[in-house]
Amino acid sequence: MPTWAYELIVAADRSALSTLAAERFVAAAQVAIAARGAFAVALSGGSTPRDLYALLASEPWRERVDWARTSVFWGDERAVPPDDPRSNYRLARETLLEAVPLPAENVHRPLAEHLPAATVASDYAGLIGRLVPSEAGVPRFDLVLLGLGDDGHTASLLPASALVHESARLVAVTDREREGTLRVTFTPPLLCNAAALLFLVAGSDKAAALRELLRGEARPDRYPAQVVRQARGLVTLLVDRAAAADLPQALP
Ligand code: 6PG
Predict the structure, then answer these.
(1) CA spacing 20 to 30 A to 146: which of 23, 101, 157, 186?
(2) Distance in angstroms (rounded) separating the CA atoms of residues 140 and 156
(3) Does ligand 1 come within 6 angstroms of the Cβ of 205?
(4) Is residue 175's pLDDT more than 90?
């Protein structure tokens, strides 16, 4: 049984999960802005964070974040145009960014549709290096939002991908397609240097992957989300009861 430090919070349902996530988002922003006058957050894609983004765009949550001091990045992005339905940027733009007073210059979308993709990745890493303060020589995000795929991936670190073992680059192009597109993704060194990693995991289809992430033997090639076991900061998993079904001790 692996021993690594994480915080597991089981919410009654997706709505409760999103409310808890909004509380964590606001808290992370307030702590960062109080400490250094700025908040750097990397958003995730997928469907689970949609409700969180909508919540943050609504009262009273919208007023609780100092958007003028917030900078938004993406932990991964598909190689599609920004108006493509598959775009993680489009998801955030439609549900959150258009509804809050976040300065346009604080929105840092990875230009994943541009070519060559490897240049996009290195350019994005360079941008992050310029804008996000480093610790131990690696940019340190105040908060990185993550999802968990039913196959055990997180961000776009996919099963059997060499990126699971990437130790130098901070952002890279996937060597696997998923849903027909290549992607640009944060790599383990960048993910694991964040002050806080916040997973949002909902649905019974995630139960096995969550069990393997938290309690399975170390097999990051099979369950890439396990790379967060090397995280230096706080790893929090906000899950619903359905996703926690294989974690008997987790249920109250
Ligand atoms: C993406 C995400 C991906 C996502 C998981 C979970 O670009 O799709 O970065 O890692 O977070 O696949 O997705 P759901 O929230 O839809 O379950």
Answers:
(1) 101
(2) 19
(3) no
(4) no
